[in-house]
């Protein structure tokens, strides 16, 4: 049986925990064939980002043309775009209908605090997104409002959805809601709270990348958005749980993408 093809458009993480590398691991773990378009090369590890080299927009477009000209891509996710010019190149492909079931992970700041993107770049893609997946800090940057509670997450999700995405999930990994991890999904005129037990761990590098990649796989398989988002949350919760006792690197370690420790 031929596997479903999914595409990630993102930056490369030399430490392997986030970005292109994490996305391809998620695709493989969930049974999809992963293809990739690299937007930037980073020097990073679990302790932080040391350097970022954005690729020229032309190089990004050439990669897109190569992949889309040969593979039947069923869903696409974007991560770090790097520059507005690169975002424009990706947005042109989306506008032309070449990026089905687009999941936009608005990567603006790495877990270490290093800036990896600009708001203007993300905003160029939002009108074409089936799902956007900002965390609280990214939602605050996109709306210009504080996002520190579940109530503020819901307000932010509705505000971002008004700007174009069909659905918005504001992820609440940084908000402790009584021992739970709560994400807020807004779309189709409804707002849903997705709850899971909070996993106490310092190993959370690549959580947002993995979540959005898992959504893309489920959309490619035909799941409706609420089902895809719930399945992705369950997957990330397992991956966080599996890696909580790992000792990979001295900082925020990666997730257990393949269930090795579960």
UniProtKB/TrEMBL annotation:
Residues 13-255 form the Pyridoxamine kinase/Phosphomethylpyrimidine kinase domain. Pathway: Cofactor biosynthesis; thiamine diphosphate biosynthesis; 4-amino-2-methyl-5-diphosphomethylpyrimidine from 5-amino-1-(5-phospho-D-ribosyl)imidazole: step 3/3. InterPro entries: HMP/HMP-P_kinase_dom (IPR004399), PM/HMP-P_kinase-1 (IPR013749), Ribokinase-like (IPR029056). Pfam families: Phos_pyr_kin (PF08543). Keywords: ATP-binding, Kinase, Nucleotide-binding, Thiamine biosynthesis, Transferase. GO terms for biological process: thiamine biosynthetic process; thiamine diphosphate biosynthetic process. One of its GO terms (molecular function) is hydroxymethylpyrimidine kinase activity. The keyword ATP-binding applies. It comes from the Bacteria. It catalyses: 4-amino-5-hydroxymethyl-2-methylpyrimidine + ATP = 4-amino-2-methyl-5-(phosphooxymethyl)pyrimidine + ADP + H(+); 4-amino-2-methyl-5-(phosphooxymethyl)pyrimidine + ATP = 4-amino-2-methyl-5-(diphosphooxymethyl)pyrimidine + ADP. One of its GO terms (cellular component) is cytosol. Catalyzes the phosphorylation of hydroxymethylpyrimidine phosphate (HMP-P) to HMP-PP, and of HMP to HMP-P. This is Hydroxymethylpyrimidine/phosphomethylpyrimidine kinase. The lineage of its organism: Bacteria, Bacillati, Actinomycetota, Actinomycetes, Micromonosporales.
């Amino acid at each position: 049986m031929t596997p479903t093809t999914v595409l990630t458009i993102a930056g490369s993480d030399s430490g392997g925990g986030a970005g292109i590398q994490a996305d391809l691991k998620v695709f493989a773990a969930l049974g999809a064939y992963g293809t990739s378009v690299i937007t930037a090369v980073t020097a990073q590890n679990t302790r932080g980002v040391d350097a970022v080299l954005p690729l020229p927009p032309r190089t990004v477009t050439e990669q897109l043309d190569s992949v889309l000209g040969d593979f039947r891509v069923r869903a696409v996710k974007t991560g770090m775009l790097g520059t507005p010019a690169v975002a424009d190149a990706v947005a042109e492909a989306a506008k032309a209908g070449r990026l089905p079931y687009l999941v936009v992970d608005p990567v603006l700041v790495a877990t270490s605090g290093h800036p990896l993107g600009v708001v203007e770049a993300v905003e160029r893609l939002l009108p074409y997104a089936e799902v956007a997946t900002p965390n609280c800090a990214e939602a605050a940057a996109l709306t210009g409002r504080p996002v520190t509670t579940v109530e503020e997450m819901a307000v932010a999700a509705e505000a971002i959805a008004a700007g174009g995405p069909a659905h918005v999930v504001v992820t609440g990994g940084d908000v402790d809601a009584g021992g739970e991890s709560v994400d807020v999904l807004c779309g189709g005129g409804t707002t849903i709270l997705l709850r899971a037990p909070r996993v106490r761990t310092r190993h959370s590098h690549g959580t947002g990348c993995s979540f959005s990649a898992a959504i893309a796989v489920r959309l490619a398989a035909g799941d409706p958005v609420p089902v895809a988002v719930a399945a992705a949350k369950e997957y990330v919760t397992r991956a966080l749980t599996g890696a909580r006792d790992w000792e990979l690197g001295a900082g925020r370690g990666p997730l257990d993408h393949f269930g090795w420790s579960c």
